[in-house]
Design brief:
mainly alpha, globular, 7 helices, 159 residues
């Protein structure tokens, strides 16, 4: 409910970054973290435009608020990408991996540098099976929109 406010969202994301950096998470912790990231994804999609940020509607003659980190869209996108990077690098549960692969295609446009997902998605694509199929859509988005180079992508796809 309060996550729609920029300052609350920013500081929640800072705490999530700390939590995502922990290496020995249980499956329950990973599942809870994914649930929070899924909720955060909805808010990030609805406020991805700089004019939609709540704080920008406030007027401050001294421009003090504009210089604060939590008011900047780029800072939110950078932090959101860092959280996802830490989360997927420490991901151990296969029960959480499949929903992550489904959601990641929606996350790609919301982060500052979408190519950070390339290694994760290519590793998932190389695993084969259902994991490979789930990674395929997001990997194709990276190839098409962000000019990511994946050697022998089409050979692996059609083999």
């Amino acid at each position: 409910e309060f996550i729609c406010y920029d300052d609350v969202r920013f500081y929640v994301m800072l705490r999530l970054l700390t939590a995502a950096s922990i290496n020995d998470k249980t499956e329950l912790n990973e599942s809870n973290m994914f649930t929070i990231l899924k909720l955060m994804n909805k808010v990030m999609k609805s406020s991805s435009d700089e004019n939609d940020f709540y704080i920008n509607f406030l007027t401050n003659p001294d421009n003090i608020i504009e210089n604060m980190r939590f008011t900047k869209v780029a800072e939110h996108r950078r932090l959101y990408g860092n959280i996802w990077t830490k989360f997927i690098s420490n991901l151990k549960s296969h029960q959480v991996l499949k929903p992550v692969l489904i959601l990641i295609s929606e996350v790609i446009p919301l982060v500052q540098s979408p190519v950070i997902f390339t290694d994760f998605l290519s590793n998932c694509f190389d695993k084969g099976g259902s994991i490979s199929l789930l990674a395929l859509q997001s990997l194709f988005i990276l190839l098409n929109k962000y000019n990511v180079n994946y050697p022998d992508f089409y050979n692996k796809l059609y083999s």
